[in-house]
């Protein structure tokens, strides 16, 4: 009952802002002049612990989500909350596709949901009652981390049952089943963090993972070795 969410930090890709969240509170600081940023949210902000915060690759969007089952999408030009997506379960992790067309978030039951951003226009809000669509699942294992690969071809999910799953992320992810590319199996405790090395220009498919077994592992994630 007294579980506390960790402090989270997200840095704008152009180093213009840094966002920090503790509990249900989000604070944003403008690194260009050292000032605080006022967040505009007519919904009153998050009501429970925040579990994940992310900037999009261009820095135009910022997304926050957590135990209040809300996924909030912010425009970083105005710092106004432009849309709220309601999840059926508590949200544990989220990621934004590299082309900024989609948001994916994972709930406490291990289901990954997708939100389509293609109808978003800067300074305009999303349609009311924006829906999220389930696209894949870890079969009741809590997903601890969710990431898109540097080339955008895969979505990588880690869970409390020691697994790392690499799934093909198609051009139209709302249509058809999602093909599993590989499993990276070797951790003996929960996996808590993921990071990619290199990018598609280097021709590398390297992933680093760490977790509760006190090991750091380097993977060729395309093959799972």
UniProtKB/TrEMBL annotation:
PANTHER family: TRNA (GUANINE-N(7)-)-METHYLTRANSFERASE NON-CATALYTIC SUBUNIT WDR4, WD40 REPEAT PROTEIN 4. Keywords: Nucleus, Repeat, tRNA processing, WD repeat. It comes from the Eukaryota. The keyword tRNA processing applies. This is Uncharacterized protein. Gene3D superfamilies: YVTN repeat-like/Quinoprotein amine dehydrogenase. It is found in: Nucleus. GO terms for biological process: RNA (guanine-N7)-methylation; tRNA modification. GO terms for cellular component: cytosol; nucleus; tRNA methyltransferase complex. The keyword Nucleus applies. WD repeats lie at residues 43-75, 184-225. InterPro entries: Trm82, WD40/YVTN_repeat-like_dom_sf, WD40_repeat_dom_sf, WD40_rpt. Its main location: nucleus.
């Amino acid at each position: 009952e007294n579980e506390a969410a960790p402090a989270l930090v997200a840095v704008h890709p152009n180093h213009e802002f840094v966002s920090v969240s503790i509990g249900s509170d989000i604070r944003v600081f403008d690194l260009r002049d050292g000032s605080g940023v006022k967040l505009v949210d007519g919904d009153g902000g998050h009501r429970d612990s925040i579990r994940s915060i992310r900037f999009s690759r261009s820095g135009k969007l910022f997304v926050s989500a957590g135990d209040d089952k809300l996924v909030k999408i912010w425009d970083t030009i105005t710092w106004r909350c432009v849309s709220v997506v309601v999840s059926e379960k508590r949200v544990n992790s989220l990621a934004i596709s590299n082309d900024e067309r989609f948001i994916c978030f994972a709930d406490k039951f291990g289901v990954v949901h997708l939100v389509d951003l293609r109808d978003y226009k800067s300074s305009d809000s999303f349609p009311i009652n924006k829906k999220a669509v389930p696209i894949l699942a870890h079969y009741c294992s809590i997903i601890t981390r969710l990431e898109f690969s540097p080339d955008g071809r895969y979505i990588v999910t880690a869970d409390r049952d020691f697994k790392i799953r690499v799934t093909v992320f198609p051009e139209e992810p709302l249509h058809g089943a999602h093909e599993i590319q590989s499993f990276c199996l070797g951790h003996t405790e929960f996996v808590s963090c993921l990071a990619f090395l290199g990018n598609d220009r280097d021709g590398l498919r390297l992933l680093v993972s760490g977790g509760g077994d006190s090991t750091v592992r380097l993977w060729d994630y395309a093959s799972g070795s």
